[in-house]
Amino acid sequence: MNKDKIFKLAKGFRGRAKNCIRIARERVEKALQYSYRDRRDKKRDMRSLWIERINAGTRLHGVNYGNFMHGLMKENIQLNRKVLSELAMHEPYSFKALVNVSCTAFPGNKAVPKKEGLSSIL
Amino acid sequence: MATTIPTSAFIATPLRCSTGRSSAIWVQKAQFSASSSSLGVSLSLKRPSLRLVSVRCETNGAGMPVIPAEERWMYEESEINGPDIWNKTWYPKAADHVNTEKTWYIVDASDKILGRMASTIANYIRGKNLATYTPSVDMGAYVIVINAEKVAVSGQKRSQKLYRRHSGRPGGMKIETFDQLQKRIPERIVEHAVRGMLPKGRLGRTLFTHLKVYKGSEHPHQAQKPIPLPIRDKRIQFVKK
């Protein structure tokens, strides 16, 4: 790549990396490597952000993310995590309905209260 | 009508009905001129100048201006249908995390296990309890801790847990036990615990400033009307054996 292209890509770099070709060439190469790697990382990061948001949204209703997703899978609800996180933020009542659906399908690991005496036979 | 000006001529300039009323007023004037020219009489002279004309753009139900089908190519998707919330992950705008509108929580630290309390506090300060959590933005709440000198630890930690600091010079390590530090500066114990649980970095340092720890049961933040921090940890109360 010629110098003009390198300097165009080096806009916003710190210090001599935006002005001097020897340094800019190295930094631009590195920047392109990082952007290649991060285009793949971005997909992972976004998914983990959606999962964190869904987790927070479900915990407001007393359910954690794992049990919630298990319940959804059992009911064969194929909404993806992106949409679920947007629902949790913008459509709280619809999200509560989804949490209810998941709870009926999979009540979670709530400890079953021990029945005492004769009621344990029932 | 002798002069048939198509309706699209009114809206030929970029529609900014939501932002400025100037374009809307322009629209109204054009309609005036069209009607008056078609009748051959300038009606605008006869209308009283103080009449209130409600200036409103044509909108559809969602509050977005209506764009006729011929002009749709001129505008971007977000201008026609509004911002796309389902295909782009939401990122908070500045108005979504104004410090003055954040909730304030209050915790009484008496007989609470230090680490468990600090963990809940850090979660609320960071904003991880909200569905709008964003790691790069401060979406969390403010937390006030009172009675910090009464915070409890289990086991032998009261005499054995060490707090170290170093002045930077050789031989400058200072070591204190939990109870020595509690006698000296009790707030520092809770602050140290929460700071260790917040992210380390520029954002983490600003988050730490949202924690307010006080020694007694008085705090100067009554005006913020703090609500009690909801703690779901069942083992947070210190049980004396």
UniProtKB/TrEMBL annotation, chain A:
Gene3D superfamilies: 6.10.160.10, Ribosomal protein L20. It holds the Pfam family Ribosomal_L20. GO terms for biological process: translation. The keyword Coiled coil does not apply. GO terms for cellular component: ribonucleoprotein complex; ribosome. Keywords: Ribonucleoprotein, Ribosomal protein, RNA-binding, rRNA-binding. GO terms for molecular function: rRNA binding; structural constituent of ribosome. It comes from the Eukaryota. Binds directly to 23S ribosomal RNA and is necessary for the in vitro assembly process of the 50S ribosomal subunit. It is not involved in the protein synthesizing functions of that subunit. Belongs to the bacterial ribosomal protein bL20 family. This is 50S ribosomal protein L20. It comes from Rhynchospora pubera.
Automatic annotation (TrEMBL), chain B:
GO terms for cellular component: cytosolic large ribosomal subunit. Keywords: Ribonucleoprotein, Ribosomal protein. GO terms for molecular function: mRNA binding; structural constituent of ribosome. Pfam families: Ribosomal_L13 (PF00572). GO terms for biological process: negative regulation of translation; translation. Belongs to the universal ribosomal protein uL13 family. HAMAP family: Ribosomal_uL13 (MF_01366). NCBIfam families: rplM_bact (TIGR01066). This is Large ribosomal subunit protein uL13c.
